[in-house]
Design the sequence.
């Protein structure tokens, strides 16, 4: 049985997003003044990544459910 | 070196290490799915189209592409988009609709093997050998570039970079074969998008949006002696080679890049074709390059735009300066300089991880194509014909190790003998330029013979060499840049010379193959050519598929979009 590629992708982005969001909350605001035009890019882009990761995991979960409903059926990923 | 020497903090390392863990984890989980050589080399022909498509594009999206296109964006402006909207999308649609039926539908497991079935042993041998050498060199040069960059901007150890990148790529391919490489390419694709998109957004905001960018790009254009809007148009200034920074005119561009080089790469290079051949059925295989063309079409926003922004900011003379090299700007440093400028620690880790991911996907693409061609076309073809499947699987794994070791050797060769690598690369480029003529005739003219194909290819390669030896780009010295047979023609730029070398090689191969085919006897019967030649192969019925599964329709939509993009940025 194949691994659904959406699972590692979803997990990686949720983990990356979580790390950056939390880091963004506690980091020194000065680093954003000197780099990202004053925008807390770690926090903002961290949230975007969490959302993307969650969508990927959601799709993988839905695909798995569809597969178990049709015994012996294959998932249609397109 | 870099004006902002990049300082990484522990959070950046955490992201990088997390990425490595995922990459290796994918290989580890997938090791159970490899039970035979078909799983290892062809992913068991089981993957859905969207995964193959992202793998297809991921394998092509090496770091040389990411950094090189940003560099070109800064150096040539919007004309760089020709590498996408002219030099990629049409060929991707063509390979999907017209060529995939023969690659996927025949019993061939690789592109060289198609040549054996269609023509003969010698044509396959020539292609397999040049391809195998070329993949090792590309992956070696990729490794070298990564190690050089990381040691320059981060102060990391050069040897350590080569060893770590090589071992990680080796581990995940060794365990999970092609599936593992493709899955990682999909992951890497998303990482590159997520790592570079914020760079583009911040940069655009900084220069005042697209309008601000257009205004700021007047200065670099007029400074270089061109019309004010040269950097923001793709076709407008190609009426003559003298009015644009690339030094090419529309015909050389459309014919050399848009036809010969582009179709030669996307339609015959096993590195990308292998991804489509891993698809679960014919429909999915044909949709792969078309679906891949969709993100490809929008990549200029991701990889060229940073270059445009960088040169705009640089010319505006604010706080942002590109480093210089040999009296000019060091365009290869566009991406690292932008990353250091806009990304604070945290995002910087993500940006570097994305860069690392692009290096690895490029390398892995080469290594998986190499191990397949070596095992099936060279080892099974010439060394041991009748081994059992387990034997070839073992050989494939061993070849992966050898391929990585050879890449490392190539990386060191690139580091110490720059010239030898340049010459070798040129020779292989000569062997590649005429290839599309051979495939075009082979697939669409049943009269093409094995001798015609083989000697046509050789004469095309020789023609490329002669053209290169007789011409020189403006301002270059005789030697590796050309002119070693006596420079009778001077091109305005190296790019113009490349395009025309390709045009000469292709035309020579095309006509030589036709003439030799007519003079020699056809050895393959019509029956043997079923599934290999257009006129002898039953047409695929498309009307029973849903509309979004029909390659011809999807391809037309994608092409229409590409035309619109060309017009928008005309």
Sequence:
């Amino acid at each position: 049985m194949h691994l659904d590629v959406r699972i590692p992708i979803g997990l990686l982005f949720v983990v990356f997003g979580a790390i950056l969001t939390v880091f963004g909350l506690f980091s020194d605001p000065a680093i954003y003044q000197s780099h990202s035009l004053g925008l807390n890019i770690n926090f903002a882009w961290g949230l975007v990544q969490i959302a993307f990761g969650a969508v990927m995991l959601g799709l993988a979960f839905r695909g798995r459910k569809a597969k178990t409903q049709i015994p012996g059926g294959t998932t249609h990923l397109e | 070196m870099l004006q902002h020497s990049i300082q990484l903090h522990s959070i950046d390392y955490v992201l990088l290490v997390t990425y490595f863990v995922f990459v290796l984890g994918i290989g580890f989980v997938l090791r159970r799915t490899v039970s035979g050589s078909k799983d290892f080399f062809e992913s068991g022909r089981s993957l859905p189209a969207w995964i193959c498509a992202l793998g297809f594009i991921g394998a092509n999206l090496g770091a040389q592409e990411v950094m090189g296109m940003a560099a070109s964006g800064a150096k040539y402006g919007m004309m760089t988009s020709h590498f996408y909207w002219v030099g990629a999308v049409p060929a991707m649609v063509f390979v999907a609709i017209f060529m995939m039926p023969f690659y996927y539908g025949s019993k061939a497991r690789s592109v060289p093997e198609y040549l054996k079935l269609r023509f003969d042993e010698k044509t396959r041998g020539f292609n397999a050998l040049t391809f195998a050498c070329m993949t090792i060199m590309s992956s070696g040069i990729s490794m070298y570039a990564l190690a050089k960059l990381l040691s320059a901007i981060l102060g990391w150890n050069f040897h350590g970079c080569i060893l770590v990148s090589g071992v990680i790529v080796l581990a995940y391919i060794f365990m999970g074969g092609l599936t593992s490489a493709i899955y990682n390419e999909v992951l890497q694709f998303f990482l590159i998008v997520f790592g570079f998109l914020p760079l583009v957004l911040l940069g655009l905001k900084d220069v005042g949006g697209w309008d601000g960018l257009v205004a700021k790009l007047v200065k670099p254009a007029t400074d270089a002696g061109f019309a004010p809007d040269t950097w923001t148009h793709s076709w407008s200034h190609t009426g003559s080679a003298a009015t644009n920074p690339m030094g090419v005119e529309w015909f050389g561009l459309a014919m050399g890049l848009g036809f010969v080089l582009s179709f030669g790469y996307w339609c015959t290079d096993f590195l990308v074709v292998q991804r489509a051949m891993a698809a679960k059925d014919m429909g999915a295989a044909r949709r792969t390059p078309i679906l891949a063309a969709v993100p490809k079409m929008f990549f200029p926003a991701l990889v060229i735009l940073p270059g445009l922004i960088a040169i705009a900011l640089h010319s505006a003379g604010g706080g942002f300066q590109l480093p210089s090299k040999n009296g000019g700007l060091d365009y290869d440093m566009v991406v690292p300089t932008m990353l250091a400028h806009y990304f604070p620690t945290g995002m910087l880790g993500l940006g570097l991880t994305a860069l690392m991911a692009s290096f690895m996907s490029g390398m892995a693409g080469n290594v998986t194509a190499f191990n397949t061609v070596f095992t099936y076309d060279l080892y099974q073809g010439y060394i041991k014909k009748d081994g059992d499947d387990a034997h070839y699987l073992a050989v494939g794994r061993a070849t992966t190790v050898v391929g990585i070791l050879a890449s490392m050797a190539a990386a060191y060769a690139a580091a110490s003998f720059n010239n030898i690598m340049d010459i070798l690369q040129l020779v292989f480029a000569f062997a590649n330029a005429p290839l599309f003529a051979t495939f075009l005739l082979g697939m669409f003219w049943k009269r093409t013979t094995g001798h015609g194909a083989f000697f046509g290819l050789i004469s095309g390669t020789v023609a490329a060499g002669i053209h290169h030896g007789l011409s020189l780009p403006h301002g270059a010295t005789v030697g590796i840049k050309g002119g070693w047979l006596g420079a009778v023609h001077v091109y305005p730029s190296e790019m113009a010379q490349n395009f025309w070398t390709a045009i000469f090689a292709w035309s020579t191969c095309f006509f030589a193959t036709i003439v030799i085919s007519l003079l020699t006897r056809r050895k393959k019967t019509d029956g043997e050519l079923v599934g290999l030649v257009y006129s002898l192969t039953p047409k695929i019925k498309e009307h029973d598929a849903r509309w979004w599964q029909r390659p011809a329709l999807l391809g037309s939509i994608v092409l229409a979009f590409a035309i619109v993009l060309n017009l928008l940025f005309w």
Remarks:
- DSSP finds 22 helices and four strands in chain B.
